[in-house]
Amino acid sequence: MTSRFLSLALAAPLVLMAPVPRPAARTALRPYPAIDAAVRAGIKRGLYPGAVVIIGRHDRILYQRGYGHFTWSRRSAVPSPATTLWDLASLSKVVGTTAVALRLVDQGLLDLDAPVTQYFPAFGGGDKDRVTVRMLLDHTSGLRPFIPFYRTAASREEAITELLADSLRREPGMTPEYSDLNAILLGLVLERVGGLPLDSLVAREVARPLGLTHTRYRPPPALLPRVAPSSSWRGQPVAGVPNDQNAVVFGGVAGHAGLFSTGRDLARYAQTWLRMGRVGKRTWVRAATMQLFLTAGERSGTRLLGWDSPDTSASGPTAFGERLSSAAYGHTGWTGTQIWIDPKRDMFLIFLTNRSFDPHRARSLAGIRDVRSRLSDVVARLARAN
Is 224 exposed, middle or buried (0-12, 13-18, 19+ CB in 10 A)? Predict the structure, then answer.
């Protein structure tokens, strides 16, 4: 964490973690040694100090457990599937931004094939006039993957101006390339359409109707002892600030990152997708709209709308492993977070870690990819046995 990052982070809560009482971590419904072994292997390898796993179906939880500690100190708290909040990083794209887009499309307020310039005329010019909302969701817009706004912009407003003025790197709609800029711009579009800041839209359209009581941006001070740290400052754990300097520039609320949540909240979210939008006797989103977001475009590759799906041509381990069905979809986050949902198996996996906090092993990203792949395969085998 740079001094520049710390100064920007003052707009969001910042707490240096102190030892807190350990919450109960053994919340498993029945033992699954292979799951425990896969997750503990990552701790033993020094990839992350703590984790939670939740596995379930559309109507029940099969397994949930916390592992390790908030930090590498055994005096720190043991993660809880129900109460520990995690820096979701890019899971913010699917739990926050994509979910709001889904709701607004379902309500007829957002047109996937409308040009972005309909909402932000300043974005236009040349091929940019052809970029649609759909292209932001399936990453075929042609925008570059990343701009270090934390180095070039002194405020959210300056970052937005820079984003809208940036030129495309590829012809729009032709090839997918994963980009934080797509999600950031989509978040701004949603604010224009929904008439509220993004955090308020996520609360109104997603968290409240789905009962995600712990899902929020910018956790307040009272919750910080329950937040697993995802970064450190001068050797001290830091909780409540996104491990994403661009998200900090945006005040902790951005389309690509900034959301915090618990394993149990994400399990409820995954179950809503497995139930195709049904929440009890209510309909959160119509099944046809859900299916629309789970359909790849002709040129979007493995990219769905917001979500990713397994790549059968990939070499080496992936977050989906090798045993999920072709209908599976999911996402990962820089901090060490993961969600996948497999409707054909009626199964979901929530795997949350704080890999970005202080990994004790080089190439921790490659290491956690191995853990994710192994865990996914274990869970896929579990689906057949239950």
Answer: buried
163 Cβ neighbours under 8 A, 6+ residues apart: 147, 149, 181, 184, 185
Beta bridge partners of 330: 308, 340
Q: Which CATH superfamily is domain 3-15+23-88+211-385 in?
A: DD-peptidase/beta-lactamase superfamily (3.40.710.10)
Residue recorded with tokens 């224009």: 192
Tell me the C-alpha distance between 214 and 85, whole Å: 7
The beta-carbon contacts of 127-133 under 8 Å, at least 24 apart in sequence, are 127/168, 127/171, 127/172, 128/167, 128/168, 128/172, 130/172, 130/173, 131/168, 131/172, 131/173, 132/172, 132/173, 133/101, 133/186, 133/189
Taking the C-alpha atoms of residue 198 and residue 216, their distance in angstroms, rounded to an integer, is: 11
Q: Which residue in the block uniquely carries the two structure tokens 């740290």?
A: 229
User: Residue 26: its pLDDT value, please?
Assistant: 44
What's the predicted TM-score (pTM) here? 0.93
- Whole-angstrom Cα distance, residue 137 to residue 186? 8
- Looking at the predicted structure, is the pLDDT value of residue 266 above 50? yes
Extents of the domains making up the chain: 3-15+23-88+211-385, 95-199
Give the start-end residues of each E strand in 111-203: none
Nearest to 255 by CA among 92, 131, 146, 99: 92
How many alpha carbons lie under 13 Å from residue 27 in its C-beta half-sphere?
20
Specify the CATH number for 95-199; select among 1.20.58.710, 3.30.1780.10, 3.60.20.10, 3.30.420.10: 1.20.58.710
88-113 pLDDT tens trace: 999 999 999 999 999 999 999 999 99
Strand partners, 259: 217
